[in-house]
Amino acid sequence: MAVLRWLTPRRRSATARSVLAGEASAEAARKSAEAAEAAQTVRETDSGAAEPEFPVHGDERAAAFFDLDNTVMQGAAIFHFGRGLYKRKFFETRDLARFAWQQAWFRLAGFEDPEHMQDARDSALSIVKGHRVSELRSIGEEIYDEYMAERIWPGTRALAQAHLDAGQKVWLVTAAPVEIAQVIARRLGLTGALGTVAESIGGVYTGKLVGEPLHGPAKAEAVRALAAAENLDLSRCAAYSDSHNDIPMLSLVGHPYAINPDSKLRKHARELEWRLRDYRTGRKAAKVGIPAAAGVGAVAGGTAAAIALHRRRR
């Protein structure tokens, strides 16, 4: 944690929360995946483009990390979840109108707006406060069938399946609540999920978060922590996202992919010769280049303390 001494108190606090959120999510993801199994399908490739075999079969030190919103699924999971909660009378019509507006903006803009996403998370936290974790997990299963299953991108799902077929673990990494992320991961046959961890005491939500939302740099911290716990070599791992907010996570791995990218990520991917896939128009995926291993100077450290704190809060 020596790096933190160079930061201002305010900056230090934000960094510590980012580390805590990442570590808490990684621990929650590992727990949920202990009994998970992997499944199978085909990887989508570019016609006529010669490239090294990837993913590499039997490479147990490699894994894949997938952003969720607009990468694996059209739209934002938290908004679809809000629709399902409204149907079950968790909140009133005026709240649904706000969820609908945020979802419409997200679909039109094609990327996450921090202010909109924060408002959605605050709304969700206030709505679930006092409810049991088990209740929300059960409802999440129903909401997946009602609103999410038909919005999974077949192309992205095929990419995830290719990693599973190669004997590698595949994780969702999302700012959505970890309980919802775990439902989606299990339904898709993935290993598990890292997501935003809401505090619960005695199995009941308090309306607070553990750390901060798993967004931006916090995703990179979560991936770094999970890789260390799973003995993964990040230079052999892959990451997939649509958003420039996830450049810290994409930069951690040796095989970064821009999926349905926003304009900033598309520009960044082209400059660094990352691979690119776009499933929004039905056209074939465009190969931008073979990715090279890259690193990012994200703040590390505090792993044991963060995980211990998370365990105490549970």
From TrEMBL:
Top-level division of the source organism's lineage: Bacteria
MF annotations from Gene Ontology: hydrolase activity
UniProt-listed Gene3D superfamilies: HAD superfamily/HAD-like, SG protein - dephosphorylation function
Membrane-spanning intervals of the chain: 288-309
Keywords recorded for this protein, A-Z: Hydrolase, Membrane, Transmembrane, Transmembrane helix
Disordered as annotated region, ranges: 31-54
UniProt keyword annotation of Hydrolase present: yes
Entry similarity comment: Belongs to the HAD-like hydrolase superfamily. SerB family.
Protein name (database record): HAD family hydrolase
Native source organism of the sequence: Streptomyces salinarius
